[in-house]
Write a structure and sequence with these properties.
Layout lengths: L2 H4 L3 E4 L4 E8 L11 H4 L4 H10 L6 E5 L9 H7 L7 H13 L6 H6 L1 H5 L4 H7 L32 H35 L3
Antiparallel strand pairs: 1-2, 2-3
């Protein structure tokens, strides 16, 4: 086993593609973000802490390929450092949607660097359905349902700008991860039932 594999919690290979996979939190409360301080200090600390704690469920995490590749940041790094994404998963998903269609986007360079991972799912719909992200897209898989409205051209620093926007962002985020967690649990329960049916 290579040193690269030894350092990985989850490793995938199909004989042609070799990937280290890492978990990434796909929610962000921005409670310690300097550029959000004027909004955050106007929200109850109890509400902020409840939001923070509610994010630590299985539906609040996903898998991305890990391990640094030459010339690109990891996806985790890029979406956190890019000032047009600011760690928002809805905007990350929009970049992934555009990348599948060959449309320029703020994470284009990084996504190209890890495209062997995304090719495993064939297309955007395949990616969304595999990771149970359906509640964040429309029924035709043509549009991302953003947590708060954004311009088509990815504005810089797309943080919630007001308390009302932050509340909308929070509620939308929590609804998404609650439904995704429920979907994961239902999927797990169905798989267990099928295994039991066949005596596995």
């Amino acid at each position: 086993m290579s040193d690269e594999k030894k350092g990985s919690y989850l490793y995938f290979t199909d004989g042609t593609v070799d990937l280290n996979l890492t978990s990434d939190c796909i929610t962000h409360t921005y409670r310690n973000t300097a550029k959000m301080k004027d909004v955050i200090r106007s929200v109850s600390p109890i509400e902020i802490n409840a939001f923070f704690n509610a994010c630590f469920v299985i539906g609040g995490y996903t898998l991305f390929p890990g391990g640094q590749r030459a010339g690109v940041q990891t996806i985790n790094q890029a979406r956190g450092c890019n000032l047009k994404i600011v760690d928002r998963f809805d905007l990350t998903l929009e970049c992934i949607r555009r990348q599948y269609l060959g449309i320029p986007n703020p994470l284009e360079n990084t996504l190209k660097g890890y495209w062997d991972f995304f090719e495993l799912f064939c297309d955007f719909r395949g990616y969304v359905e595999f990771f149970l992200l359906n509640d964040l897209v429309d029924e035709e898989f043509q549009r991302v349902n953003f947590h708060i409205p954004v311009d088509d051209e990815f504005p810089s620093l797309p943080f919630p700008k007001t308390v009302d926007e932050y509340t909308q962002y929070k509620n939308s985020t929590l609804t998404f991860i609650d439904r995704r967690t429920e979907g994961m649990l239902n999927f797990s329960g169905n798989q267990s039932s099928q295994n039991g049916k066949f005596g596995l």
